[in-house]
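In response to the reviewer comment on reproducibility (Comment 2.3), we provide here a single inverse folding case reported in full, input and output, so that an independent group could reproduce the run without further information from us. The structure tokens appear first.
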């Protein structure tokens, strides 16, 4: 009898059914253990997206509200201080203002040695918007901070004082130089445009955060047009471009931008290949009333596209 029981227990203990149940239960426990963190991660991911979306929607609303509130004041300032904006066809002025407000919202402005005033970010942001008006991506994403210094300053090992520069930390500008050089919009010297030109190549080629695919592609078409002029200048030829352009091809690019906007007539006459190369690269011609040449990038007045850009761009 005892033997029979032992056998039965043994049979019972080692039955395939029990093994299956144990494996099944163990599997279920592993699955349950896995599902908890997976569900948690999915919920967390959805929550982050929702919060981000909600914040971007609020940002879009804020930009719309600011546009309505500030339009008249900003228009007055820009007409007075920014000849490019002043010369824009009326239908492009709203577009320019919206872009400028978005740019201001995307950046932190820090003031060194002077008190910040509302029109400072406005005029500086307008310079970036002017340069990128024909491009789709105009927020220079990677460079989130703009330092406004009272006057020229020392930087690195250089003995020469700086009026502006661009580095990993952001865009630096001397406010006094910015104002003086915008005041004379005919001499081909404009530190605001110069530094924004550096900033544009910085985000497109050095860090590739905030890049514009069309700009990147067309830069390789612009270089062969500009290089021969750069080489001739380095060999001693004088052109309407400031001599500082010979320092490097990067400086040649930034100096060309200053002249492109401030002295477009003589530029087109004397160096047509470089001038039209820049028109193609930036998708705009400063001499045309509409400025933008090819396809007008869709974004500012279209909230959907703005949200898409903002999701990729703004820091939260
Ligand atoms: Zn430079």
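Designed residues, in position order:
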């Amino acid at each position: 009898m005892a033997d029979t029981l032992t056998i039965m227990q043994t049979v019972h203990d080692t039955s395939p059914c029990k093994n299956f149940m144990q494996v099944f239960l163990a599997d279920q426990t592993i699955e349950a253990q896995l599902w908890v963190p997976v569900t948690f991660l999915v919920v967390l991911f959805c929550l982050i997206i929702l919060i981000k979306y909600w914040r971007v929607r609020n940002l879009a609303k804020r930009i719309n509200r600011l546009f309505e509130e500030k339009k008249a004041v900003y228009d007055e300032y820009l007409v007075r201080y920014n000849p490019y904006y002043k010369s824009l066809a009326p239908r492009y002025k709203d577009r320019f203002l919206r872009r400028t407000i978005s740019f201001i919202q995307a950046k932190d402005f820090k003031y060194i040695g002077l008190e910040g005033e509302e029109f400072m970010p406005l005029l500086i942001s307008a310079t970036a918007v002017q340069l990128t008006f024909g491009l789709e991506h105009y927020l220079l994403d990677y460079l989130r901070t703009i330092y406004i210094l009272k006057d020229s300053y020392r930087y690195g090992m250089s003995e020469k004082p700086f009026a502006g520069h661009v580095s990993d930390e952001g865009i630096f500008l001397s406010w006094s130089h910015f104002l003086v050089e915008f005041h004379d919009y005919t001499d081909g010297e404009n530190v605001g445009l110069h530094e924004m030109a550096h900033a544009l190549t910085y985000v497109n080629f050095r860090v590739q955060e905030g890049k514009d695919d069309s700009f990147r592609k067309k830069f390789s078409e612009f270089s062969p047009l500009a290089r021969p002029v750069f080489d001739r200048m380095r060999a001693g030829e004088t052109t309407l471009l400031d001599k500082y352009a010979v320092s490097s091809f990067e400086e040649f690019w930034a100096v060309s931008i200053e002249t492109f906007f401030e002295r477009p007539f003589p530029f087109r006459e004397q160096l047509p290949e470089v001038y039209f190369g820049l028109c193609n690269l930036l998708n705009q011609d400063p001499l045309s009333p509409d400025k933008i040449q090819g396809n007008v990038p869709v974004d500012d007045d279209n909230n959907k596209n703005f949200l898409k850009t903002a999701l990729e761009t703004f820091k939260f």
